Amino acid sequence: MPLPTRASQDLILNTQREKLKRRHVFKPLPPVKVVIQSLGRVVSSRNMASELKEDQAKTFPDCIQLNDLASETVGGKILFATDDFFAPAENLLKRQAPEFKLNVFTEYGKWMDGWETRRKRIPGHDWCIIQLGVPGVIHGFDVDTRFFTGNYAPRISIQAANLNQGEVPTFSQRNNKMGTAFSEEDLEIVNKLKSDSWNLLLPMVELKAGHLETSHNVFPVSSQQRWTHIRLNIYPDGGIARLRIYGVAQKDWSVIGTNDLVDLVAMVNGGVCLGFSNAHFEHPRNLIGIGRANDMGDGWETARRLDRPSILKTNDKGILQVPGCEWTIFRLGHSGVITFIEIDTNHFKGNFPDSCKIDTCALNQQEEKEEALQKWSKMNEGKWKPLLSITKSKSSCRDIKRISGPINRLSRGLFSAASSITLYMWTVIDLRLCISDADFIYGTWFTGKILYCWCYRVHREWPNFARQDPEFRAPEEGALAAQLYAAIPL
Ligand SMILES: NC(=O)NC(NC(N)=O)C(=O)[O-]
Prior knowledge:
By secondary structure, the protein is of the alpha+beta class. Helix content is 11%, strand content 24%. It contains 7 helices and 20 strands. It has helices at residues 6-18, 54-59, 184-191, 365-373, 412-415, 464-468, 477-487, and strands spanning 24-25, 67-68, 77-81, 115-116, 126-144, 155-161, 199-206, 216-220, 226-235, 239-240, 242-249, 272-276, 300-301, 326-331, 340-344, 355-363, 385-392, 398-402, 418-425, 432-433. Strands 2, 3, 5, 6, 7, 8, 9 and 11 form an 8-stranded antiparallel β-sheet that branches. A 6-stranded antiparallel β-sheet has the order 1-12-14-19-16-17. 50% of the residues are buried. It binds allantoate ion. The site of allantoate ion has 7 residues, from loops. It is an enzyme of class 3 (hydrolase). Pathway: Nitrogen metabolism; (S)-allantoin degradation; (S)-ureidoglycolate from allantoate (aminidohydrolase route): step 1/1. Belongs to the allantoicase family. Its EC number is 3.5.3.4.
């Protein structure tokens, strides 16, 4: 089959985007245990679903909706690869979807956007070691062979380990590894990890070639443990464009003090998207990634709704009067008292949402499951309480809101349950929103109890970064936390 040209690929992609599903709610996740481990970093990932045909996306398991724990954007790293002859293993972790460049060759061969080893002429098989950017529970893999057609790796297996920092030896800088294989020195270092005996998360499976319809090789896994490192084995050699490792972060909540300000929904803290109405351009999980968005592709961006009125009207508060809205639901990584929300429409200038609102809800696991099975259609039936009433959004702007009033004083009852939050975007003229930065939560923590609630992105180095950030104003920090803490009956 001839390789498609760039122009024809764009055409196919655009056609597929047009057909993208409008609403997605995925099956409830299994309970996430809070494991006492060291703090990881953060996650965001691209919307793989947006590359797929509607019916194709439907056939993929829900794990592809979770956070990519290995993306370079959250600190995922290649520590070692047996061979990087045609293309270095670092490409596996790139955020962007793979590209194909017709007639582009390097001094080693055809330029390929992925990890591609040479045709092996010695015993054994190729493998590499990946350090996750965010340690967590892995729910599945997408092994994307895109554009590797006559040269894809025919079989893989995946092993995993949960390592303390002290157990990981220092590897030499990989720099540009193209045209090379491992050195004796690298081998000596990697042997210390004894990775060939790590837990087998995915036994040997066959891959399909990197044609558009077959390139996403998705494998759900059911391990409930926390992992920090992955060994990807390819048999015997070949190329893979991207490896997405989908899961939920696990954070050590025992190190969080009752006066600490923490972003409860940040992916790095265990936040996870449970469903959404539309992810036409970008997935809402981007809202809970790390730092401010790099560009519009790093936010949540829906399609313009076709049911928007031909002639728009606003009410006396300037809010557009339109039917319906787009929504997304997040489960928080831990319970807490929400005192700050940050809504950041960074990079969204001609397409920021007219307004948004936020509701919260306390749900136990069973209730969460039921709500998800009913596609969150019961959101307006009593359980959900407003956290932020309908509020006008601004163009490319970081907006921090302090939440006050009874909603903050969560009763103990709430803490014995799980809760979820919905974010409504009341705008129909243009439903693109990038909410991309820290939600400032003055948290009160109840280790061992998980309340799923809401908030936004976390800064790298949280909370120190935020406290040094001149734009950040957290009034009465210590006093506020103590007061709220006192207000919660124990
Ligand atoms: N045309 C190719 O892709 N050839 C080889 N790969 C690269 N990247 O040149 C190969 O067969 O492995």
